[in-house]
Design a protein that fits this description.
With 248 residues, the chain is of the alpha/beta class. The chain is built from twelve helices and six strands. The protein has one domain: Phenylalanine Hydroxylase.
Length: 248
């Protein structure tokens, strides 16, 4: 598959512009500096749906990653295979104006605006690709897939980082959401230190704001936790203890 850019309608470009300007009106003082640097690297424009060719040019020169076009949600095995090969699976379709407030399935704005800027950060990318390689060893084990989903959820999608003494956003599920990107830095939000075992024991939620956010100290911390992640996964495989899925 490929991005057929000429097929984007005026409404598509307007939707991108509305969502982009809304997020960039309040994200700069809430989000990691690397996200803002990543936006410059991949060359987002406020009023135009980005071309994957330009995005990939920026990523290739910084971390060697690229965006790989998929029709929508894909199965676990191909998903983690792409990530292990430094390819981020992304869809090309964009929500309609009637869906600005809520969208159940991730669209291009989530995939590209939310995820791609962070793919310019080497330590984060290394964590993502090597985590995927670990998961692929046990991809047929539903318990491993479940804890991997929890880890991905609480880091890649809804992770936060302590930066210059302040808690900042880096997860794509937050950065691409108008509501959650404001809630997660409010007094109502609960922060917990990044801990592999705690995350493995915490089902994820997708139908409301998160009950807690796990805060890392650095992207190197994520990468350096990979041996512990691998060991915990090996323990799960050996013990064969049933883990209740977050969503059946």
């Amino acid at each position: 598959m490929r991005q057929e850019y000429s097929k984007y309608t005026l409404e598509d470009h307007e939707v991108w512009a509305i969502l982009y300007k809304e997020q960039m009106s309040h994200l700069p003082n809430k989000i990691t500096k690397y996200f803002l640097e990543g936006i410059k690297i991949v060359g987002f424009e406020p009023d135009k749906v980005p071309t994957f060719e330009r995005v990939n040019g920026g990523l290739k020169s910084s971390t060697g990653w690229s965006v790989f076009v998929v029709p929508g949600l894909i199965d676990n095995k191909p998903f983690f295979e792409h990530l292990s090969n430094k390819e981020f699976p992304a869809t090309t379709w964009l929500r309609k104006k009637s869906q600005l407030a809520y969208l159940e399935e991730p669209d291009m704005f989530h995939d590209i605006f939310g995820h791609v800027p962070m793919l310019s950060v080497s330590a984060f990318c290394n964590y993502l690709s090597e985590l995927s390689a670990i998961v692929l060893k046990h991809i047929e084990n539903p318990n491993v897939v479940e804890v991997a989903a929890r880890l991905y959820w609480y880091t890649v999608e809804f992770g936060m980082i302590k930066e210059n003494g302040k808690v900042k956003i880096y997860g794509a599920g937050i950065s691409s959401s108008s509501g959650e990107s404001k809630y997660c830095v409010s007094k109502e939000a609960t922060y917990l230190p990044y801990d592999v075992k705690t995350i493995f024991n915490t089902p994820y939620i997708k139908d409301k704001y998160q009950e807690q956010y796990f805060v890392i100290e650095s992207y190197e911390q994520l990468y350096n936790s990979l041996p512990e992640i691998e060991q915990e996964i090996e323990n799960i495989v050996e013990q064969s203890v049933y883990i209740e899925p977050s969503y059946a």
